[in-house]
Amino acid sequence: MGLWARYNALLEAQPLLTKALTSLTGFTAGDILAQNFVEDSDKPYDIMRTVRLGSFGFLIHGTTGHYFYGFLDSKMPGTKPITVASKVAIDQTIWNPIFGCMFFGYLNAVEGKSMDDYVSKIKQDLQTAVMGSWAVWVPAHTINFAFIPPSQRLLYINTIQIGYNVFLSFLGNKSVDEEKKE
């Protein structure tokens, strides 16, 4: 049995775990790329940062994505243009800001930061994260909702997410103090 067939068998047998593991992989790869190829190479590699991002993928992104996209597909089945446009609009106007709050909140919590730090991060970076998302996810989700089978949605999202996670990793790990200097 090939890798693709094994993945699909695992997806059918344990969809939540498979999607969580797929998100773990996507977020881990995105942070590794960000730290090694995008950010200041003078800083040493931060393995705990990669663990934080990967654990977010596993615990939050994969699980909430499984339920959110499953719910969306159950309420709005099909691939008619109006359905696809509605799903993209819901994803980007409702889910996207919620996801951003979860992302920054998770990082804040696992780093032991205060609620004031979280509020500052949301004020300074949520709009950037949401608007940055539009450039990537509006076209990506148009393809997703029109052509990707529901069971494969999170794999497709995580494939795109690897590149997008470079941006999220950078933004999520940029300190409030760094932003005040700019």
TrEMBL record:
Its main location: membrane. It comes from the Eukaryota. Keywords: Membrane, Transmembrane, Transmembrane helix. Pfam families: Mpv17_PMP22 (PF04117). It is found in: Membrane. Coiled coil: none annotated. InterPro entries: Mpv17_PMP22. GO terms for cellular component: cytoplasm; membrane. It is a multi-pass membrane protein. This is Uncharacterized protein. Belongs to the peroxisomal membrane protein PXMP2/4 family.
